[in-house]
Specification:
single chain, 412 residues, mainly alpha, Ammonium transporter fold, ammonium channel activity, transmembrane helix, RHD protein, RhesusRHD, Ammonium/urea_transptr
Length: 412
């Protein structure tokens, strides 16, 4: 092994130790006594479901490469537990700067876990190429930038705080795509850059696991939780059915394809995330679920055959068409539905107010995706500097570069 790769033993543990010292200092100085924090009885089950999605659901969802299962699940867990603590540290910094109000307890923790979803989605785009140091640095940078993007939307574009978190899919997908574009491309014939029936099974199980708990993801910070759960479930159900339907119709032999199920069953939940709590008629959520699944499946065909080659996109786990494109569809649908609701309420008499609503909603969407793309590109350049020592392309998608395999040792 080249000497420059032996630095992981020195860099990763000390980087983690430094971060934990910082987080412990933050906890010692700022967090309230747990006994003084009032936690509603209904809130913890929702938080537990969201935690399951991020840890178990995405951990298995990312296991799409045949020799990268240890790293997919292990690094996802490491980044999540570090990122949640970093999120709360960033929130404290924003409170200190008087950018937002102080919030403690389970609600603050839930926002931190939801914010980590952006990093997990971005990790799916660079999966197998970034080493642990690069992933940790990307986590810290992306969380700070995501919070800054939320602050811009909240303070200048009048987006409600809970709705700014719904841009997490959009920001994560396009930040990851932009960062991944700066990594060297893997050789076309690299054998490790493919899936197996076992890896496909685990990744689909992760998607199904996240599917089960996704209504909690969309409802945890909303007021109308019952509406959010109902609309999310209907959107997810139609999305899953449409995934099977389109998979059989688009495959050459009329059989189902695991890659379609993997990418499309969550698309309905992502699409309806902006409007789950405000939709009054479940059929609207069902239509959005159908359109989300169609977008994911046909988006995967277009991305792999057209956009990835032309734009030099690299996307290991399909973050673009699983989260990015459905999130774009959901943001557009949110603008249309909010304008229709406001127009009906005012009988289309207050056109300046409607114009202002459209402008602010579109501006928030454009600001989020532009910030994600620009900062993702800059972060990708930083991650590929000599200081962070990117792995050679021959080491892509290989667990043995980072994990111990006793059964492969000499003498066994």
């Amino acid at each position: 092994m080249p000497p420059r790769y032996l630095s992981f033993r020195c860099s990763v543990p000390w980087l983690i130790l430094l971060l934990e010292a910082l987080f412990l200092t933050r906890a010692f100085l700022s967090i309230q006594d747990a006994g003084n924090i009032d936690v509603p009885a209904h809130f913890y089950p929702l938080f537990r479901d969201v935690n399951h999605i991020v840890i178990f659901g995405f951990g298995f969802f990312l296991m799409v490469r045949r020799r990268y299962g240890f790293s997919s699940a292990g690094f996802n867990f490491l980044l999540t537990v570090l990122g949640v603590q970093c999120s709360m540290l960033v929130e404290d910094a924003l409170v200190f700067l008087r950018v937002q109000h102080s919030e403690v307890g389970m609600r603050s923790l839930a926002k931190a876990v939801l914010s980590m979803t952006a990093v997990v989605i971005s990790t799916g785009a660079v999966l197998g190429k970034a080493n642990p140091v690069q992933l940790i640095v990307m986590t810290l940078v992306e969380l700070i930038l995501f919070y800054l993007s939320r602050c811009i939307n909240r303070r200048f574009l009048q987006v409600p705080d809970s709705l700014t978190l719904r841009h997490v899919h959009l920001f994560g997908a396009y930040f990851g795509l932009a960062a991944a574009s700066r990594f060297p491309r893997a050789p076309p014939g690299l054998d490790k850059n493919r899936s197996t029936p076992t890896s496909d099974l685990f990744s689909v199980l992760g998607a199904v696991f996240a599917w089960v708990f996704w209504p909690s993801f969309n409802s945890i910070l909303t007021v109308s939780r019952a509406d959010a759960v109902l609309n999310t479930y209907f959107a997810l159900a139609v999305s899953a059915v449409t995934a099977f339907l389109l998979s059989a119709l688009t495959s050459r032999d009329g059989k189902f394809r695991m890659t379609h199920i993997h990418s499309a069953v969550l698309a309905g939940g992502v699409t309806v995330s902006y409007t789950a709590a405000t939709i009054q008629h479940p059929w609207i959520a069902m239509v959005l679920g159908l359109l989300g699944s169609v977008t994911a499946i046909f988006g995967s065909h277009c991305s792999q055959r057209c956009f990835n080659t032309a734009l030099k996109l690299q996307d290991t786990s399909g973050a673009h068409f699983t989260f990015g494109l459905p999130a774009v569809l959901g943001a557009v649908a949110a603008v249309i539905l909010s304008v229709a609701e406001e127009g009906i309420a005012t009988q289309w008499s207050d056109l300046p107010s409607l114009g202002s609503l459209i402008f602010l909603s579109v501006a928030a969407f454009c600001q989020t995706i532009s910030t994600a793309l620009v900062t993702g590109l800059i972060t990708g350049f930083i991650l590929n500097t000599k200081l962070l020592k990117s792995a050679h392309v021959s080491k892509y998608y290989d667990d043995q570069f980072y994990w111990e395999f006793p059964h492969l040792s000499v003498g066994f």
